[in-house]
Amino acid sequence: MARFLLSVYQPDGPPPPPPALEEVMKNVRGVRQEMEDAGILQLAVGLRPPRAAKVARPDGDSVLVTDGPFAETKEHIGGFSLIDAPDFEAALAWARKLAAATTLPIEVRAISEG
């Protein structure tokens, strides 16, 4: 098995209205349960808003700390799932389910174990 990171691309701004958010979260819980039942889920978390983030960036001989996760963007990583899957195609199949549940883009990346 290989490990994959499924990252949720969340738009900046307020969350959807409560009825829509409740439906999304119900769907997300369903996919997470399916991942747990399949024995592939290692970790699934949501992240706090980007305004609570800091970035440490090398700057010559020092390190500059700035607010937020990105310079210029309208999206941020809203959460992620770490899964074990036999190959990239299997991880992508889980990403499709998660994208349908969240109604948001999901990035799939293999974890480098070296």
Commentary on this structure:
- The protein is α+β, with helices and mostly antiparallel strands and 114 residues long.
- It has one domain: Dimeric alpha+beta barrel (Alpha-Beta Plaits), CATH 3.30.70.1060.
- Helix content is 32%, strand content 39%.
- A 4-stranded antiparallel sheet has the order 2-5-1-6, with helices on one face.
- A hairpin with a 2-residue loop joins strand 3 and strand 4.
- Helix 1 packs antiparallel against helix 2.
- The two termini are 15 Å apart.
- The model has no long low-confidence stretch (mean pLDDT 91).
Instruction: Count every helix, treating DSSP H or I runs of 4 or more residues as helices.
Output: 2
Topology as a string of helices (H) and strands (E): EHEEEEHE
CATH superfamily: Dimeric alpha+beta barrel
Low-confidence stretches: none
> How would you classify the helix and strand content by structural class?
alpha+beta
Rg measurement, Å: 16 Å
Number of separate strands: 6
CATH T-level fold name: Alpha-Beta Plaits
Number of domains: 1
Averaging pLDDT over every residue, what do you get? 91
The end-to-end distance, rounded to whole angstroms, is 15 Å
- Give the CATH level 1 class: Alpha Beta
User: Which shape, going by the Cα principal axes?
Assistant: flat
Strand content: 35-45%
User: How much helicity do the residues have?
Assistant: 25-40%
Q: Going across the biggest sheet, name each strand in turn.
A: 2-5-1-6
Largest sheet: 4 strands, antiparallel
CATH architecture: 2-Layer Sandwich
